[in-house]
Design a protein that fits this description.
The structure is a homotrimer. Chain A has 21 helices and 11 strands. With about 450 residues, the first copy, chain A, is of the alpha/beta class. Chain A has 2 domains: about 325 residues, TIM Barrel (Alpha-Beta Barrel); about 100 residues, uronate isomerase, domain 2, chain A (Orthogonal Bundle), CATH 1.10.2020.
Chain lengths: ~450, ~450, ~450
């Protein structure tokens, strides 16, 4: 990326926004890094092992995951050998955002001048390693160096939030938790009934009763808000929302408590609970996020051997129109409610999501998610959503990453994508140059602040 | 739009077609305007209130529909205040076709030189108001001023067509009705059984019997044709066509007459009736239009309070291949039959509709519909359909609007889209410049005349 | 095509690959041509009659198929008259790849200088006819003239392969068979049970028993491999794969042998057999191809009158994620297994196929298939798959054609598409020029060799 210049009109728009502070309102960094502020570990553990974008590509070309340290006990891993395996396959990433992100991270963020190749694996490894040991690359200092203003993590409902408390104590206002309650809402998740009991203990509410369960959830939401949370998040495999009559949901809850729901009843229960969460969001102001359409862990052998998140999550087609209908009809006209949605099914951009966002007052469209968070993915997103939803029903950008050092790279790719899109619109006579210049910083920065209500955050 | 020039090669193609007469073979203008030729009302009532593109966007950003006069009795509306609310939110439309259309309408069509903004709301309102009071902006004069050659409206099967008769009397050959019989064909529509009785009274046929019902429909089609109609139109929520054995459809019809069909039987009945309509089209030459895939009134609170068409119609995925199979196998090889289809599911363009149009002799592809009637939507349409369907299986353009004054703007956007597409094809080596120059006027004008058989019209 | 130049940066990339030898690893040419090496027949029989791209378009515009010789006994056809009908409708193909292919074939491949038009039909016919009678346009010589290195045909499991034996005898190593066993695997195909008996006779195995049936299939695969086959191919209408317990599949097989399976059981049986084929591919190294999503012969009148392949095959939406799950979980992690997939549902490119190819070690994405094998189809393909799958999970190009003389044209269109894509990536800052120059020949030539394991072929 860094070696290649943008065409001239896009370049001017890009230059004006490239240096704006980074708002990262949704992602998966570890809050403990900022509580402890301990140095990051070796390059492989930081850059390779947690990045499923990277290791899925290597696996697709026959590299054994064990050669990348996955499933290997940490004390038996050889970070340098792992980095060599990765460098040997660097060409596989040509044309992918992964390559752009990593080039940006190494060259622009960390200042490594040696270009990565099979021949330079050791040299680059050593340079990264030396860099990470410098005090300015400790987590809190890196946060500042990388020009990040706010960073939200994603945290289970039962998370005690001690890391967030730690960071807030002497380094407040930077790291926000996000309330992700699927573990206690979706009975299809293994261990669900046990977690309801833990939730009772944690909150003192009687979660065997439906009312007590709702109270317990409200208590957890309040705890998250107290530490700066402005949003919730849901990972929904098959989108269906419902609003069930009270006796029916109470019956289902009793059976969920007993761990005794059929697959279909579990789906109905979860569909109703999503609508309950929308109602609670209208009440307490937490922005609701729905990420829908990822079929998780489709490679069962990898799941059994190594667990989830091994690169085998594959999207499926999604019906947003009917899927959200119950939730929206229950809460969607409430001016207090805010819902951000993320799709892996791009065919829904123009067909469903842009028309919905251009109508429902609660709805904002999240940026391109996951496989679509890429230069061409961003182009397709703008192409398909803007004409129906406008710009002001968009939620700006979020990086959604667990790779902390790649955050500037990912926001940079978005900002380049914004510049390329706006320049193309001007070129084709759809937008004036002055309007494009005003929209660029909004899309790069302000939209996310507004969508996630971060201006109101503590 | 108007301030921004097209790139040079597209500009030349555009200039050659910008002034062609406008053929508007499908839309929703009120024929009474042209029968009565009374001046148009105030700017808000003409430009804001009937335009769901406009008020859905404002609603999506928290503007109350009552502030736009919706649900407010006409005598309690303040047109100037409504226009101010709209002008205050003008920035929301950046990047949307709505903005392009309105800019064109104000500046190019009405000659308003003041640029719309929150500060100029009153001035622009006054200028529009003064313009509309001038004789040359009475409906018939405006029709001529705007260079319209033919305008088709859309009219229910039970419409007495008195407005069309009024216009035809002393101003013939301009305004054509279109036969839209869903109200008497689709039992899922409230009041269906009552309308069958009205149809009996209107035609003298015994609609309790299936044969009488078919005769009554033929009578209404003949009445429409007598006033210049060349086409029918269907609004199909979930596409399914069938051909049922005679005893079965007679039984279903008896139950439809009695208002006693299950939802599934109603769908089967309607699916069969669509095929009957195709057969009648083969017989009487009326071009059949199917607009499929809009889930209507998904916001139930708005439907209850304000009725349909409040901006909450949202598309769903459509299966054209299987959905049209029964109809096409019954009538699709008949050289007399012509079917135009319109989709809100762009994924069907290249997957289903272009391959179907490139095979079935009856089939022509309608232009991008509704949310896809936009500069980038037009680009996607050409990109996905031409290589398989060619240009000559396309139906040209129709504006599908109820906003009369926006008709030149909408055709202008199509013509710009045609120019941009053809210039891009030439640039990429896919088309010679001479062929592009020949195709431009065909796409801008001739294709619609041919598709709708307007050359044969009275 | 030939008259129009590519933009400069793409032109340089194109020039470097335009002359590379042609690898044609999947198509439908007749191997008998190369066994017999008899002159090709007249222009119409060679260029018009076998090309459903051509006659489907003419049929869509009202040309009777009989006027093109379809359904007419060969001795009653008038090739010159057929060619005139085609030339009269040449304008219908503007903007289609068919036009580009035929222009290339006539001008560049056959050296016909007269431009095709209604007026020149006879002259062009005569020039083609004269050309085809020259010795350098006999099949084997044409193969060399056209710079083809390898050509794979597609052959039914029961094909005795005598043509391949004939060609191999004195002209070895050019023509390879491909094992297409759907006729003996899919009970939904008419005559399935009879063919199982033929298979028994052909192989000596007892196909009434499931084990014997598997042995017979293995024997046929070995026979294909002995003549150079490196791949199998499946035409799957509705994608579903399964792995059934042994007693269950044995029961289904017994009923398949008896010709007594319900539609659903037939689908389950076929879904299981696809997984068996994947296992055999892991064992014997034949690359497995799946072409899924074409609904065959949707025009029943044409099917009854003229048989299949009359231009009425229409795509339907496909669920690749769930459809391949059973097969991939059974064999997909096996390093010996290679699976190439082809879709007619482009919405699956970015949503399903690229994510799957970027994970499963067995999977490579086939090039744009059929209606999507076009300049813009190729652009959409690269746009949607590269960022997630990279370049090295792609299978290069195959022409999939039965129109032998169009092979150079089709590969030329791919190579232009490759050049346009790579130049655009460089222009937008996503790829360095040196990387683009390295990727071009890989995409034009090497990828197909690797994907189809042709370097290992005899």
């Amino acid at each position: 990326m860094t070696a290649h210049a943008l065409p001239a009109p896009a370049a001017a728009l890009y230059e004006a926004i490239a240096g704006l502070p980074i708002i990262s309102p949704h992602g998966h960094c570890d809050p403990a890094w900022f509580a402890d502020d301990m140095p990051f570990p070796d390059p492989a553990s930081l850059l390779i092992l947690p990045d499923h974008y990277l290791f899925r590509m290597l696996y697709s070309q026959g590299v054994a995951l064990a050669d990348l340290g996955l499933g290997v006990p940490p004390d038996q891993r050889d970070p340098r050998a792992i980095f060599r395996v990765f460098a040997d396959h660097w060409h596989l990433f040509l044309g992918t955002p992964t390559r752009g992100w990593l080039e940006h991270t190494l060259q622009r963020t960390l200042g490594i001048e040696t270009e990565l190749s099979p021949d330079t694996a050791d040299a680059v490894f050593d340079q990264i390693d030396a860099t990470l040991k410098r005090p300015e690359w400790r987590p809190r200092a890196a946060f500042v160096t990388m020009n990040i203003a706010r960073l939200a993590t994603t945290d289970a409902a039962l998370d005690p939030l001690s890391a967030h408390q730690g960071a807030a104590q002497d380094w407040p206002g930077r790291i926000l938790p996000t309330f992700r309650p699927d573990d206690i809402l979706n009975p299809a998740r293994p261990g669900h009934a046990d977690r309801l009991r833990t939730l009772s203990q944690m909150t003192g509410a009687d979660c065997a009763a439906y009312d007590g369960f709702l109270d317990a959830i409200r208590a957890r939401r309040a705890a998250f808000r107290a530490l700066g949370a402005t949003a919730t998040d849901h990972d929904v495999p098959d989108l269906m929302t419902l609003w069930l009559p009270r006796p029916e949901i109470e019956t289902l809850h009793a059976r969920a408590w007993a761990g005794d729901l059929s697959a279909q009843d579990a789906a109905h229960y979860y569909g109703h609970m999503l609508t309950e969460m929308a109602q609670m969001s209208a009440e307490d102001g937490l922005v609701m996020q729905i990420h829908a359409g990822s079929r998780r862990s489709t490679n069962h052998a990898l799941l059994d051997a190594l667990g989830p998140d091994m690169g085998a999550d594959i999207p499926v087609a999604m019906d947003w129109t009917r899927g959200l209908e119950a939730l929206l009809n229950r809460v969607g006209n409430d001016p207090r409610f805010r819902l951000l949605v993320f799709t892996l099914d791009e065919s829904a951009y123009a067909r469903e999501l842009a028309p919905m966002a251009g109508h429902w007052p609660c709805l904002r469209l999240g940026p391109p998610w996951w496989f679509h968070d890429s230069v061409n993915g961003i182009r397709r997103y703008f192409d398909r959503v803007v004409e129906t939803a406008g710009y002001f029903n968009l939620a700006g950008f979020n990086d959604d990453t667990r790779a902390f050092l790649s955050i500037p790279a990912r926001h940079d790719m978005w900002r380049r994508g914004v510049a390329l899109h706006l320049a193309d619109q001007v070129d084709r006579g759809l937008l004036g140059a002055a309007d494009a210049a005003r929209l660029a910083p909004w899309l790069a920065h302000d939209a996310a602040v507004q969508a996630y209500r971060l201006a109101d955050a503590a």
